[in-house]
Amino acid sequence: MYEQSLTDFLRGKIAELERTIEARRRYLELLDRSAPAGTAAAEPAPAPAQAPPQVPAVLVLSEQNHPQPEQPLQEIKLQTKAGRELGAVRVFPDRVEIEPSFTIRKNTPPFQKFLIEKIFWGMKSKDEEARDAGKLDPGQVFDWELVEMDGGVLRRIILHGLNDPSVRERRLREIASATRWTFEKMLERTKSAF
Description:
Elements: H1 2-34, E1 74-79, E2 85-91, E3 96-100, H2 111-132, E4 143-148, E5 154-160, H3 165-192
Antiparallel strand pairs: 1-2, 2-3, 3-5, 4-5
């Protein structure tokens, strides 16, 4: 059971890193294309490997091969009105991550009905309409993934498609506000269950 969750975690981490690499390649291509004539453009990014590397069964980490965590561009702390920390919204160049600071399960109301179905699906629907009308690139459609541990414990929410500056700040405020309210209600329900 532990080996399976470690395997799932490592596969998820590899997928996340591959998405990060791909996003940075796209940024590099944009920079190369926008370089003025006569200036030295960066060398093209190497092509991705044909086969994914094999993950060893046991990883031995040392300070030399343990990468430093990526620093967010912005961090929004989520707190109750009384000041209790609920989590954080961290903004990275290619994604936004929401991480609760307490143990919650994704099946605790109002997570699914409010945050996922009303807020996230609402944003995704608007983006899909804009994409279908030709106003938004397919890669900019809002989407999310839930990173969970055994038993449905929510570890992190990763949001994609918040790259459009015309909607990013407004959506970040809406997401932070809705997440704070949702986490606060989930915390109240968790406390009342004991």
